[in-house]
Specification:
This protein has eleven helices and three strands, in the order H-H-H-H-H-H-H-H-H-H-E-E-E-H. The chain has helices at about 5-30, 35-45, 45-55, 60-80, 90-100, 100-110, 120-125, 130-150, 150-175, 180-190, 230-245; strands at about 195-205, 210-215, 220-225. It has a three-stranded antiparallel β-sheet. Strand 1 (about 195-205) and strand 2 form a beta hairpin. Helix 8 packs across helix 9 (about 150-175) and helix 10 (about 180-190) crosses helix 11.
Amino acid sequence: MAPEIIQHTEDGRKQKKFRDRQLEKLQKSIRVKFKNQTLLLRALTHRSFVNESGKSIKDNERLEYLGDSVLALVVNEYLFRHFEDYREGKLAKIKSAIVSEASLAKIARRIDLGNFVFMGKGEEHSGGRERLSILANTLEAVIGAVFLDSGLKSSRKFVLSLIRDDIESINNLTYLRDPKTSLQEYVQKKYKERPVYQVIEERGPDHKKEFTVKLIINGREISIGEGPSKRKAEMNAARASLKKIEDGDIVI
């Protein structure tokens, strides 16, 4: 056998060993054992890897499409069964926050999913492993793969293991009456500290003051609020932050 062919064969074996180790490690992390390992491999394969490799392998986009539907079904069913007093509008608002790109990317980071994605070198060098869209889409693809491999019961169990706590957090954020209290409870639970409110502008005569406040969480400026008193400005800043979190516009 020619030396270059031997080297190519060795490289192929090394790649397969690395791939198999990655698949095994992820399955242990998410506590799901695939009967068909090819499904999981496909779920982790980004289009850029297919384009660069030149091999006849499939990317994860069709699995992402399926996983999106499975995720929506599981979330909707859970909300329907556990929040019997909520009308359609409230249920839709919670569901929208849970399945947003930012929320799914946050969940993907929790299970370190980005480090298991097979992607092209160009995509990786441009920060692909931390890109919200890639993280969220890969998570949906994995959900789709679990569904095809083990059915709805297993995929429901998998999805709920990832999102149940997030549903409760978002529900509390959305429906507590006082936005400052709601935000403070959320931030203290996550960072063991309170949100910081800073007056950045005070204008107008004494009888008609207008205050502008910025809200800082974990050292990051998150939102701005205005009002005729410091308290009102702080409330509006907290309300704006809650909306950003619920809509998935920011991840804190």
